[in-house]
Design a protein that fits this description.
- The chain is an alpha/beta fold.
- It has 4 domains: 162 residues, Glycogen Phosphorylase B (Rossmann fold); 154 residues, Rossmann fold, CATH 3.40.50; 172 residues, Rossmann fold (3-Layer(aba) Sandwich); 154 residues, Rossmann fold (3-Layer(aba) Sandwich).
- Helix content is 35%, strand content 15%.
- It contains 23 helices and 24 strands.
- The chain has a 7-stranded parallel β-sheet, sandwiched between helices.
- Helix 7 packs across helix 10 and helix 20 crosses helix 22.
- It is globular and about 90 Å long.
- The protein starts with a strand and ends in a 12-residue tail after the last helix.
Length: 707
């Protein structure tokens, strides 16, 4: 499998004067999982190149012939020898027509600029041509994407052909005590970039606050905007590495462009280094810094005022700096994974033996969790079974121990709660099986002493656990759940939770986030293919083990659901586990969920980043349009065209009614959600992630949730 990247003609792919496109391509390519399969093509006079996988195209120019055409044709000649499966064109939509004449494989186009200003995408006709002839059109901001679809009818049907993939920056540790009283400006020193506004404001600031200074990086031979002050340093063009290093000590960064910047690498990089960023409200700039100060009235006085406010309020300055740094997620690794997901979804890769990348070809695993054998299949569809399937699909030798079944069946006078028998079973099983790894899933009855004995028998034994229950401070059973997950302390080599580890108040050593996995053999419905008799499905699991509602049991979600039903009389609800409607299990659950086109993913407690009950896998996996509280932040790794975010009950009500009526859009999003979830959040990938972190090997799989 080969991928060819075509840069714009004369894009400077060199360390000395690299353009924004070159920096982006180099940064995400060198850490891509496809790195060894990628070649980058361009034309530059510089001798030094950013990477070894770059090929410089030497052109045989002809009089009266378009240079762009010669450039692309030269590139296509090289492709004939390579048998390339995917070509990625950066920022040159006018290249597409030439390429399509001689190339039949997959084709991507990435926009770095405003599509309406570029040859090949200015008119509606040109943009429709691109939609019909490019497999994926990628934009560096939502603003650019919206510009592309300006005045195009039925754009909702065409949006699936496109994606937004922001540009990226590195992220490094920042010591905020090292921040200096410095204000920066990076970019062309012209009016379009707002340098005249910056210069006018900064001279006044430096006069009024002489303990502050300013640094300007950039040049502009075509415009002469001269500003002088003893505390103002004009440093000219500098390499990106130098600017990133300097930004670590910058306190305030100003990006006050007049023109509609499609994205804004400068403000992105400043955020990654913990600067307080002041940006104009032009183009995609507001998308670059979640905690940026946005100048809606763009003039030198408002800029002066915002800088002065930060200087005078040190607490606010530090707070904004830390918020920018904390909320920065657009690392090279994060964006590279998004790009790789897009590539992976369009290229049929050869099957590879995943197990050769670990030190052992086949691992022997003891998986201890509640397999619910005593309930005769009623609780068969659970995460333990999903992960068990994943470990087996990976080719490993997996021995299952159902801890609660053993306890239930072995209670006696000599073993009142059955736990002694469980410990003996685990130790004896290990003696006969000699496992490489023990995986615990909510196995609360396993004693730490048992694990200690096994680790003494085998110093190389790895022990890990997965945990699905909520761990948020304002969630249910907070104290109890934190005691459970920290029970075995340093005996565990790793822990996997369905809550963002960084959002948990009590930190867990060597912990990683995992999504609730889907499973191809469990999630078998395609509700989007049917006109379901019900609109919204919601089910709670009260009385899991007794199989019926428990008297006196109350869940705060009942208040929310009852209020939602009251507000939406025209929505056909199908609700279980509350209002005296018994919960549903097993095959009966599948029959009930098959009758609804939409599903509400509502978990217990206050929303916390990434946490969801395991119901989410059944909603996405069976093709229901899934509604999720936006505070959970699933859009960090699940594309926005795969589910619906809501921010309160009124917003949810509006969207329920909207998608009840809009069947076409509802089914498209449902299908996209199921496809994505089953492909990228399935039990095999989650199982591989667990083992790769526990045994410290690098998987060749892409884990979209691993940032």
């Amino acid at each position: 499998m080969k991928i060819s990247i075509l840069l714009p003609y004369k894009e400077n792919y060199s360390p000395q004067y690299a353009g924004a496109v070159s920096l982006f391509v180099n940064d995400i390519t060198k850490i891509s999982s496809f790195n060894k399969d990628i070649l980058i093509f361009g034309n530059t006079q510089s001798k030094k190149k950013l990477s070894k996988n770059y090929i410089n195209l030497e052109l045989n120019k002809k009089i009266f012939q378009s240079t762009s055409k010669i450039y692309v044709e030269t590139f296509l000649k090289a492709q004939g020898k390579l048998n390339t499966e995917l070509i990625e064109v950066h920022n040159r939509p006018n290249y597409i027509k030439i390429i399509k004449q001689k190339y039949i494989n997959k084709l991507f186009l990435y926009f770095h600029n405003d599509p309406l200003t570029m040859n090949g995408s200015k008119t509606i006709k040109e943009r429709i041509f691109l939609l019909n002839n490019v497999d994926k059109i990628i934009f560096n901001s939502k603003w650019s994407q919206n510009r592309f679809f300006l005045n195009i009818k039925n754009k909702h049907d065409l949006l699936l052909k496109t994606s937004v993939c922001y540009q990226s920056s590195s992220k490094t540790k920042i010591n905020f005590d090292n921040k200096k009283k410095i204000i920066s400006f990076v970019g062309k020193l012209n009016k379009a970039k707002g340098y005249d506004l910056f210069g006018d404001a900064i001279v006044k600031i430096l006069d009024k606050y002489p303990d502050w200074s300013a640094k300007v990086f950039g040049d502009e031979p075509r415009e002469k905007l001269l500003f002088k002050h003893k505390n103002l340093k004009i440093l000219g063009f500098k390499k990106n590495e130098y600017i990133l290093k300097t930004l670590k000590e910058i306190s305030i960064s100003v990006v006050c462009s007049r023109w509609n910047e499609p994205f804004g690498r400068t403000s992105l990089e400043a955020s990654s280094r913990g600067s307080a960023v002041i940006i104009s409200d032009r183009g995609g700039l507001p998308e670059t810094a979640k905690s940026g100060i946005i100048l809606k009235n763009l003039n030198s006085q408002t800029l002066f005022n915002e800088i002065e406010k930060l200087i005078l309020n040190k607490k606010r300055l530090l707070s904004i700096q830390k918020d920018n740094y904390k909320n920065f997620i657009l690392t090279h690794a994060y964006v590279s994974k998004i790009f790789d997901i897009l590539r992976d979804s369009h290229i049929e890769k050869k099957k590879i033996n995943l197990f050769n990348i670990s030190k052992k070809a086949i691992l022997k695993i003891i998986h201890i969790t509640n397999f619910n054998q005593r309930f005769d299949g009623r609780l068969h569809y659970n995460t333990g079974k999903r992960l068990q399937n994943g470990f087996v699909r990976l080719g490993h030798n997996v021995l299952a121990i159902s801890d609660r079944d053993i306890i239930s069946r072995n209670k006696s006078i000599n073993d009142f709660d059955g736990k002694k028998t469980l410990q003996k079973t685990i130790i004896d099983t290990y003696g006969n099986f000699k496992a490489d790894c023990i995986i615990l899933g909510h196995a609360d009855s396993v004693d730490s002493e048992t694990l200690y004995k096994l680790k003494n028998l085998n110093k190389n034994l790895r022990v890990t656990q997965w945990f699905l229950d909520p761990l948020g401070k304002y969630g249910p059973d907070y104290i109890k759940n934190n005691e459970r997950i920290n029970k075995h302390g340093n005996l565990l080599d790793s822990t996997f939770v369905t809550t963002d580890p960084n959002s948990i108040t009590k930190k867990i050593n060597n912990s990683f986030y995992i999504p609730n996995p889907s499973d191809q053999s469990f999630e078998i419905l395609k509700n989007y293919e049917s006109d379901c008799e019900n609109d919204l499905f919601f089910a709670m699991s009260h009385g899991v083990h007794r199989g019926s509602l428990k008297k006196g049991k109350f869940d705060n979600r009942e208040l929310f659901i009852n209020k939602l039903m009251k507000k939406n009389k025209n929505i056909r609800f199908d609700v279980y586990g509350m209002n005296n409607v018994q919960p549903v299990w097993g095959d009966n659950f599948l029959k009930k969920i098959s009758n609804s086109s939409m599903g509400l993913n509502l978990s217990r407690g206050k929303p916390i980043k990434y946490y969801s009950s395991d119901r989410i896998a059944q909603l996405f996996g069976n093709g229901l349009l899934t509604f999720i509280d936006e505070e959970i932040s699933f859009n960090d790794f699940i594309p926005e065209n795969c589910f619906i975010n809501y921010n309160n009950i009124n917003d949810l009500s509006y969207k329920l009614n909207k998608y009840q009526k809009d069947k076409v859009e509802r089914k498209k999003i449902s299908q996209s959600g199921q496809k994505f979830y089953l492909k990228f959040l399935n039990s095999t990938l989650v199982a591989d992630f667990i083992l790769s972190k526990t045994f410290d090997y690098k998987s060749k799989n892409t884990f979209v949730w691993d940032k």
